[in-house]
Amino acid sequence: MSGVFVVFEGIDGVGKTTVCASVAEMLRARGLEVAITAEPTHEGIGAFIRSGAAGDVSQRTEALLFVADRNDHTERIARDVEAGRVVLCDRYFASTVAYQSAKLDGDSTDRDWLISINSDFTGRADATILLDMDPLDSLNRVGSRGEEVSKFENLGFLEQVRDNYLLLAEMFGFHVIDASKGREDVLKDVMAVIDRLV
Ligand code: TMP
Questions:
Q1: How many domains does the chain have?
Q2: What number does the ligand 1 atom closest to the CA of 91 have?
Q3: CA dist., res. 148 & res. 145, Å (int)
Q4: What is the pTM (predicted TM-score) of this model?
Q5: CATH code at 189?
Q6: In 3D, which of 90, 89, 92, 94 has the Cα closest to residue 114?
Q7: Potential cystine with 128: which of 7, 50, 156, 185 (Cβ 3.0-4.6 Å)?
Q8: Close Cβ partners of 177 (under 8 Å, ≥ 6 residues apart)
Q9: Cβ 99 under 6 angstroms from ligand 1
Q10: Whose CA is nearest to atom 18 of ligand 1?
Q11: Pocket test for ligand 1, best of 42, 91, 93 (most atoms within 8 A of CB)
Q12: What is the pLDDT along the chain (198 residues), one digit of tens a residue?
């Protein structure tokens, strides 16, 4: 049996990681084999990105690094799907388009170019779930977790990222879920999408 590939997207602090973990728990309880994965990955190029070792590079270079990481990651995802697993992926190509096409310190990259550099290295997800929330609320969540605020986590920037995501949702048919609702309600909406696939 072939597996299923589901992607979770959304701005920082929206709860993707928690939702992924809860969905995995529910699916495993039904006897399904689940693989949770994320981008940037924690190996190779992904680990390099996360380390910050690339330094102060342009948005285009940053985008190319995310896509290089995605190329190897996509091969691993395909193997898991072939082995019959449900793959839950925390961020995928839409993150590159939504984040790297938003303006940071005056630097922003063309959306069509970002879509085109992804096209050869991206697998087709069975569903992409966009957890949508006002950045004011998501930033409060990040702050209340006591996490360090990254360069991507300022309000104006995240407002652009959110708008980019909503546009991509229309272009690519993502499932948009209101993530400002309570945890149980969000999970119910997410499972309604996943139940159609598994
Ligand atoms: P994380 O907080 O979900 O681990 O993601 C790390 C940051 O990397 C997050 O702020 C979003 C950003 N990012 C991009 O800018 N482009 C990408 O392609 C990916 C995968 C992540």
A1: 1
A2: 20
A3: 9
A4: 0.94
A5: 3.40.50.300
A6: 94
A7: 7
A8: 129, 130, 131, 132, 186, 189, 190, 193
A9: yes
A10: 96
A11: 91
A12: 689 999 999 999 999 999 999 999 999 999 999 999 999 999 999 999 999 999 889 999 999 999 999 999 999 999 999 999 999 999 999 999 999 999 877 667 899 999 999 999 999 999 999 999 999 998 888 777 777 667 677 899 999 999 999 999 999 999 999 999 999 999 999 999 999 999
Its domain, for residue 154, covers: 4-194
